[in-house]
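[step 3/7] inverse_fold.run input=structure_tokens len=109
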């Protein structure tokens, strides 16, 4: 195991980007996913920080953009707005990219 890495494979304190989630999604629906934190170009599940990731769920995008240490603040901000768990909201049947995009723009994250 590498320094800074937990047994779960999540790197604590890792901050991959200096961008907001709205910039990561880039108004491009193909950069958003459901049911997993991130996917590669073939649709396979990968870690949010993996270089092969091309799309993220809202929770995975939060961790990628803000790092695990800061992601909890973002998680709480989203949860307060949507009234439920971030993953449950993201993965809800019928949830659209437009709704996710509107939320991250409204919260300015």
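[step 3/7] decode complete -> sequence:
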């Amino acid at each position: 195991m590498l320094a800074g890495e937990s047994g779960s494979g999540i790197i604590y304190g890792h901050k991959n980007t200096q961008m907001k989630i709205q910039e990561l999604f880039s108004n491009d629906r193909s950069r958003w996913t459901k049911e997993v934190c991130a996917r590669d170009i073939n649709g396979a599940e990968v870690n949010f920080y993996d270089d092969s990731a091309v799309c993220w769920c809202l929770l995975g995008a939060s961790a990628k953009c803000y790092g695990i240490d800061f992601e909890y603040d973002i998680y709480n901000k989203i949860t307060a707005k949507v009234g439920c768990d971030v993953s449950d909201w993201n993965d809800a049947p019928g949830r659209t990219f437009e709704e996710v995009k509107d939320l991250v723009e409204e919260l300015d994250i």
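[step 4/7] annotate
Helices lie at 21-25, 58-82, 86-91, 97-107.
Residues 26 and 97 are 11 Å apart (CA to CA).
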